[in-house]
Amino acid sequence: MNLFAETWRYLLDGSNWTENGGFLSRLVEQLLVSFTALGLAMAIGLPIALWLGHLGRGGFLAINISNVGRAVPTFALLALLVTLDWPGSGYFGPYGRAGLATLIALGLFALPPLITNAYVAVREVPLEIRQAADGMGMSGAQKFWRVELPLSMPLVMSGVRLALVQVWATSTIAALVAGPGVGRIITEGFATNTYSQGMAGAVVVAAVALVLELLAAVAQRLVDPVPRARAGSSPNREEQLSEPRPKVAEAADTVGR
Amino acid sequence: MKLRRPLAVALSTGLLLLAGCAGDDLAEDDNNNSDDSSSTGGAVTLGSQAFDEAALVTAMYAALLEDTGYDVETKLVETRPAYLNELPGEIDIAPEYLAGLGDQLNTDANGEDAAPISTSDTQETLDAMAPLLEEKGITVLEPSEANSQNAYFVTQEFSDSEGVTALSDLEGQSVTLAAAPDCKGRDDCEKGLTEVYGIDITLEPLGYASPETFQAVLEGEAQLGQTSTFDGTLEEQGLLLLEDDRGIQPAQNLIPAVSTEFLGEHPDVGDTLNGLMEVLTNDLLAEALVKVQIDREPVEDVAQQFLEDQGLL
């Protein structure tokens, strides 16, 4: 029996997608959990990190505190949270069983890449640009909103993109506490010795991770105020930002014709 | 080591079958058993599985056999095939479970995919496995009333308010079940509950009789939880077992499986073990198992106490 052929057959069987607890309902759960956890982490982490970046201090502390989140295994945290009276393992609306505990554990997991990237992004705005903004008489708020934030957006977004893909793939561990998501299909496959089912679950999670990565890459490109500056190998912002002048060779061509 | 049992058999029956093989061992065994014990004694090896319940019942066998003059050696292993393949042979007696034994013999003889021969009926299962037992050289003694099955529990309040005492009372209802992760698709679990009882099951894979499963039922997140018929912790938690009135659980009566050859040479073993089978019940074993699993008493002590209480020692 070929495991890959069996996996493929499992994926092609429509009832595995539509049944109660099938791929579709589990995917919706996992997308909800992942995006909500990411949203919560962004709402908490980004303002703090951007503000600290603007002030230019406290970032070391913030980054290291959030990095504790990397050191604590998400599974250990999740297992602990479900045994507590709150958040416990109860149903949490569309997020399913142990939904709240899963959201908290994943939200904390998403913080480190968000905070590190956002803080560094603001700090890395070139000093001469900040000085120019000061020289133009911008207030602190104006400087942040009109200079620092736009210029730091690509790096902030790359943190969001990193966090999204990490949170998505990690959210499968919710299955270990009988929580929401495609992980349930994977653990059930292994518990019943249906390895093709476990494999199929892993394939679906990986495929969606790739799709999310692509979408995030597009989003990252859209928020970049100077997109073409990043295309060249040695970006020269001033030249690329201004209207490209006709080059000598092109001009000569025109004349010759 | 390998020769000990055959030698003992040879001695006690006066047939020096393997006498040429090992004169030294022969003398040793001679000193150990034959001189002191009555004609019913000798060496006997028990084989069973290592989990608490099987270990406790095996300790009861051992204490009884020692009391009647046998020199008992016990081998506890993780899986059934490890000792069943040596019965008869290295192992003389296995404290067994009816359907577990029957289905194992069946797959050994007819391949991994052979359909189970066990049913929820004790006699039916016994009849179905009779030819396999004969072929293998095993004789089973009387099955005990004690029947170690998977079982499903609800809270006392749920039972009172919904009027539910048997699984069939849940027919047509939507029920959340906290059970082992491999429950889905099993005839004695999700599939059986759905197809035989017509219950709309939502499965939560929280584990077999695990703390999470008990918690889920006690807190009302699940209505039904999975445990064993030998679970002695239910009553004090305000939980009760539902009757499997349509029989989706195979009959797992406790039953001694004895090498036919060994039994022929030691017919007294049959009476000894049948006496134990007569006494054992689910409730008594559940009570004894609480001492092993909750109070962490050694199985030998619990077995000894149990047999004394029952007047068997």
TrEMBL record, chain A:
Compositional bias annotation for Basic and acidic residues: 236-257
Highest rank taxon of the organism: Bacteria
Top-level taxonomy: Bacteria, Bacillati, Actinomycetota, Actinomycetes, Propionibacteriales
Protein name (record): Osmoprotectant transport system permease protein
Stretches the record annotates as Disordered: 228-257
Naturally occurring in which organism (per UniProt): Nocardioides szechwanensis
GO biological process: glycine betaine transport; transmembrane transport
Ranges where the ABC transmembrane type-1 domain occurs: 27-216
PROSITE patterns in the cross-refs: ABC_TM1
Gene3D superfamilies: MetI-like (1.10.3720.10)
UniProt family annotation: Belongs to the binding-protein-dependent transport system permease family.
An example Gene Ontology CC term for this record: plasma membrane
InterPro entries from the UniProt entry: ABC_transp_perm/SBD, MetI-like, MetI-like_sf
Subcellular location field: Cell membrane; Membrane
Topology with respect to the bilayer: Multi-pass membrane protein
Transmembrane parts of this sequence: 31-52, 59-80, 100-122, 162-186, 198-219
Primary localisation category: membrane
Keywords, comma-separated and alphabetical: Membrane, Transmembrane, Transmembrane helix, Transport
Pfam families: BPD_transp_1 (PF00528)
TrEMBL record, chain B:
Domain of life per record: Bacteria
Keyword Lipid biosynthesis: no
Keywords: Signal
Keyword hit for Transport: no
GO CC term, one of those recorded: ATP-binding cassette (ABC) transporter complex
Signal peptide region: 1-27
InterPro entries: ABC_Gly_betaine_transp_sub-bd
Residue intervals of the ABC-type glycine betaine transport system substrate-binding domain: 43-308
MF terms in GO: transmembrane transporter activity
Pfam family, one: OpuAC
PROSITE patterns per the UniProt record, alphabetical: PROKAR_LIPOPROTEIN
Protein name: Osmoprotectant transport system substrate-binding protein
Native organism: Nocardioides szechwanensis
Classification of source organism: Bacteria, Bacillati, Actinomycetota, Actinomycetes, Propionibacteriales
